[in-house]
Amino acid sequence: MDHQIYILVIEDELEVMDALVKDLEEFEQKFPVESANNAEEAEQVVQGIANSGDEVGLILCDHVLPGKNGVDFLISMESNQLFTDSRKVLVTGQAGLEDTIEAINKAHLDHYIAKPWKKEGFQKVVVDQLTSFVIKKGYNPLEFMSVLNSIRLAEALRGSQLTDH
Amino acid sequence: MKLNTTQRIGLLAGVFGLIVPFFLNIAGLSEAGHVALGIFFLAAAFWMFEPFPIYATSVLVIFLQVLLLSKEGLIFTSSDSSYSPDSYTAFIGTLANPIIILFLGGFVLAEAAVKYNLDKNLTRILLKPFGSKPKFILLGLMVVTGILSAFMSNTATTAMMMTVILPIVARLENNDPLKIGLALSIPFAANIGGIATPIGTPPNAVVIGALSQQGINIPFGEWMILATPLVLVALFFVWILLLGMFKPKTDSVQIDMSGSFNTTKNAWLLYIAFGLTVLFWITESFHGIKSAIIALIPVVFLTLTGVVTKEDIRKLPWEVLWLVAGGISLGISMKSTGLAEWIVGSIEWNTFGSITLLVVFSGVAILMSNFLSNTVTATLLIPLAVSLATSGVAGEGFNLIIVSLVIGMSASMAMMLPISTPPNAIAMSTGAIETKQMAKAGISVGIFGLVLVILYAIFYWPLFLN
């Protein structure tokens, strides 16, 4: 890869943020993790990532945040063509039905993780979402086989007209 | 486009190699031979160090020959005693050489097979008789991989088989060596299985293309008679080798491949086209219709019926056809300018025995293709072997067909490193194996492959070729 694929975490409570980042440790080497405490800070972070030619592969976002809420942030990301393909996941205990519906309809939410989460289930979601991102973008699946869902990546390889040379 | 140091060296060496012969006067080599030598240097440097993609170099080779060596080119507009230039159509015509058309037919079939899941469904059926004992599962996976890669590309077969073995690998206990055995068995069986038919892998095309320029036609079925016994023995060896090196701990393995054959009209049309084409290919010796002509059946039938669409055609691996055509085209001028003969003439071959020569060609081919593309290896070596055999300098026992087969098949026996073949790269990327495990097993296969190819060349192939 000639650029980085970031995981972006937005969470205002420090302990929760620590727990999230800890569960993401295994991915750090391949997918650097950026964190933000609120939507405004997150907007600066994604801007910085875009400016250096990198991408956001996965956004893990809390809903209730000081200032702009998580769902609104995800909607704004969805409408920015640089981040339309970024996988969007709400990690929250407090999004009401209406907010959630809005996130699905307007931000094309890819997954909803209810707090408190279990490490295994959480990591599986991260793997699946990043796998979808890599396949959607058409990146060389071989680079991600050992970290992401290798079976889905092999399936993607199979459809990609590989040849001998 | 950024080039690394190796690529820059290759670029410089290639350009330098192209230009220098223009300023030399090599005794015994025609003027056109000098030009061809320059093009050969450039092709070799670019193919080996890859400053450009290998298929791009191939088209460049065709273009340079049209420009510098054809009757319509810049230099040789009329025949003289030392060189009668070919028309440019001879060079660009290699893009429609019968072997290219044969591969096109194979590509269309393989593409359609993947589209309608025929590859996976065949795997499911073929694996059933192998039960659940680890050693037989391993054998079954290798046999199926070998069969599929004889008709599809080795690489596509490996990718498909990975979807079959990765769930098994994931369920095995962490320290079970079977994991490594499984992950190595697929690329190895695919590399070897490709040898079995003319369309199995591009080096075979290089062999058949070079021989056809000498007026020798190897029918599809005859190739299989020559190659399949070798493939079976090599697969058996790899099976024993992997079982020995990575002794399975578990005593039972479950393969859960669910699914059923696609029974839509289009899928049926594909099954019929696949079956008929393969049947006619294998029986070429009986009915005499050339395999390249038969290869048009799936192309015509599947496009007329809409089973293969415009989008599918666009996705075919055209660059492989360019690669092979570039090699065939290079062979044309090496022969017609007298370059190949000159290279051959500059070495005292008859001091070697013909068997020593075969061993040398096999060893060099295996060594080179561990680091280079298998096709490039075959392309660079075969013109030399062909002129060596046709010029007679290597003595009576040195047979043109046999030495070509030795090079072609040896090129497919290289599987020491992740970069040796694309199937190896796929297996490596799963993280289930380490490079040193692949190297250890791959070196054993390389050495065994060399011995095997030479034994067949001495004892088996002559039975059919004389």
Would you write up a description of this structure?
- The complex is a heterodimer of chains A (165) and B (466).
- In chain A, α3 (70-79) runs parallel beside α4 (97-107).
- Helix content of chain A is 44%, strand content 16%.
- Chain A has a single domain, classed as Response regulator (Rossmann fold).
- The mean pLDDT of chain A is 92.
- Chain A contains 6 helices and 5 strands; from the N terminus they run βαβαβαβαβαα.
- In chain A, β3, α3 and β4 (87-92) form a beta-alpha-beta unit.
- The longest helix of chain B has 31 residues, at 435-465.
- The A-B interface holds A 141-143, 145-146, 150-151, 154-155, 157-165 and B 54-55, 111, 114, 153-156, 158-160, 162-163, 166-167, 170, 194, 201-202, 315-317, 319-320, 323, 373-376, 421-422, 425-426, 429-431.
Mean pLDDT of chain B: 92
The order of strands across the largest sheet of chain A is 2-1-3-4-5
Q: In CATH, what is the class of chain A? A: Alpha Beta
CATH-assigned homologous superfamily of chain A:
Response regulator
Low-confidence stretches of chain A: none
Provide the low-confidence segments of chain B as ranges.
Answer: none
Topology, number of strands of chain A = 5
The greatest interface here is: A-B, 18 and 36 residues
**Total helical segments of chain B:** 23
Distance between the terminal alpha carbons of chain A, to the nearest Å? Answer: 22 Å
Helix content of chain A: 40-55%
- Helix count, DSSP H or I runs of 4 or more residues of chain A: 6
Query: Would you list the SSEs of chain B in sequence order as H and E?
Result: HHHHHHHHHHHHHHHHHHHHHHH
Amount of beta strand of chain A: 15-25%
CATH architecture of chain A: 3-Layer(aba) Sandwich
Structural class of chain B: mainly alpha
How many domains make up the coordinates of chain A? Answer: 1
Mean pLDDT of chain A: 92
Oligomer: heterodimer
Could you give the distance between the termini of chain B? 52 Å
